[in-house]
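Treating backbone geometry as a discrete language has practical consequences that deserve illustration. The amino acid sequence and the backbone structure tokens for this protein are reproduced below.
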Amino acid sequence: MSAPRHPITTRAAAFLCAAAIVAAPSAAQAQFGKLKDLGKKAAASVVEKKVEDEASKKVGGAVTAADPGAAARPRSVEFTDDVLEITDARLAQLSRGVDAEEAARPAAQKRYQARLAAAKEADRTYEARRAAYDREYAAWDKKKTEIEACNDRVLKKYEHAGDAESKRSQELHDKMDAEMTDAKEARLKALADRMDAAQKRGDQATVRVLADSMQREMATFMAAGREGMAMSQRVTATSDAMQKESKACGTVPPAPKNPDNGGYVDADMARREASAAGAKAAGLSERQYAVLRERVEGYARLKGRTGRSSLSYTAGELQALGGDAAKALFAKPGFATTESWSPDGD
């Protein structure tokens, strides 16, 4: 969070103004002359305003923010998915929404206050929590470095442990490739076919003789297989020993969590949450509810005198806004006393 900018103090501002006048007296005098003329105009406008007010009172009342002009006249309105036509049924929907909104407002405000209090507390304790985090992180980083160094030593120790087995394995592979010629493969296949035939006719003596011949032909491969199995057992034992030593180094624990400060808490959160409850009760989308309430509230706040505003209503809408449903809605506590909101920020 950046530090707030401090405004120039009154004394400093006065000093700067005085310095500017001394540096440029002619320009200052000209400025004072303009200020004097503006003052005269402002005073004259105040007098004229009072005269206008008195005149307006005589012809039917003063023109105020709540009474900006002539009564609303029917205009063309483009209705969309979000801009709904104001009817008695829609006013009833809005009325249900307003009731739900008012009912939800205390709880929403309470949640906002709780979040705001939590954010303030987080800001208040941030420096202390940050200092504690720095200590925890330093201890964690030290432990992590020690564990990684231990694992590096284990890896270095067993770095070449399998080199001999790997070399011998390649030698055996090359030897068996060289041994398995096309001629030998043909002899083995012929022996296998003869053994199968002898087995089918029940000639066990021939089967035994052929089996002996098969073993002699496969002697190199069988020896290689036995040696390969022994190498596999040694590699497994080495791997188990390496894993055991690595496990003894320990496991790096999760890093400590960097503390957060309070952050931004939206001051308008409670109003939006309450409005969402109103939209749900009204059976409208949040956007539809917001636009409908804004248009109806605008009419109620200006007491129908929307002549100088940007609000537009059709003849049918004006009829609904002048009916009993609208009057009952306008009389609800809290209605048309605050600015409406839009969930899209429009």
About this structure: Residues 193 and 199 are 10 Å apart (CA to CA). The two ends are 28 Å apart (CA to CA). The longest helix spans residues 88-157.
